[in-house]
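Handout, section B. The chain below has 399 residues.
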Amino acid sequence: MSGQSETEASPSAFRLNQRILSVVVFNFASYLTIGLPLAVLPGYVHDVMGYNAFWAGLVISLQYLSTLLSRPHAGRYADLWGPKKVVIFGLFGCLLSGICYALAALSADWPLISLTLLCIGRLALGIGQSFAGTGSTLWGVGVVGSLHIGRVISWNGICTYGAMALGAPLGALIYHLGGILLLAVVIMLIVIIAILLALPRPSVKGSKGKPLPFRAVLGKIWPFGLLLAMASAGFGVIATFITLFYQAKGWPGAAFSLTLFSLAFVGTRLLFPNSINRYGGLRVAIVCFGVEALGLFIVWLSFSPWLANLGALLTGAGFSLVFPALGVAAVKAVPQQNQGSALATFTAFMDLSLGITGPVAGFIMSYAGIPVIYLLSALLVCLALLLTWRMRNRTAETT
């Protein structure tokens, strides 16, 4: 049976990727609606609307909070309704965010109303993203089969980071050309096109088994979620604080360091698309934790920009496959009818980790300096490596 699946998988790798991309493109669209206003809204709220930095930060943070709180519901409804309906529902949430931005721009003479509309738009966007992201992953798995779940999660991540990387500069350009109103119109057009493309696509059949309650799902996947949260702290300190790290050292090129991190992240997923199927999720995760920890140790010890760049590169490469590697193991820990809930709950650990990392690392930095946060996050990733090693050994003993 395994020989047959291998023969089937190798000649059709291009076809597999094509089928996966035809579905995860909807997650690309949802993340494009996140990336486009990301570099624009804080400045708009602060400089144009005249609110202070707290409100500018709140407008951005509302989307992350909304995503975190709605993820378990996205997974549950993906299991109940099927992934296609959940994706379309999520895209309508993204569309609502664009409508709210447009109304906020049109009500600029009433700053309080305008700010309220922006906040509603950000909340709708968070819900839309969690539904579209979870649904598109499960839709992809339904299209190509659960054997290729690691490949689906990897491509979904590439779409996510690709859309964010493209969206931020494109959003700044659109805002320069026509302000918030033009940006809102572009967001609405992107989502409408995505919905029109999604509607005719065939849906996939869900499992008819009785789903487990949320507490039971959480009980099965929390060890994998905890490991993901530890690894995400390393990602968080690079993405959030590397600019401050470079400033403190008096070095130029922090943006290039972030580019190297992103390129390594995407490149690793493209270079090793079948590694999880071949070696197993936990074994791949152990290697990834080792590479990520090494990268963070190098950043901590760096005495020149090229060394810090190398550390950021290794951190991006190491973190790249952690999510799909552990995600495969988490999803396999529950029955098929609970895969949506498992994936969404698992992802929420990353959301929570990134939400906590910023303020905690900021607090530590204020007392112990910036470099120490890279040492502490490297030690946290090493702990994740040891726990994964122990988990893998236990699994091997029981099988």
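Note. The domain at 10-198 is CATH 1.20.1250.20 (Growth Hormone; Chain: A;). Compare this with the example in section A.
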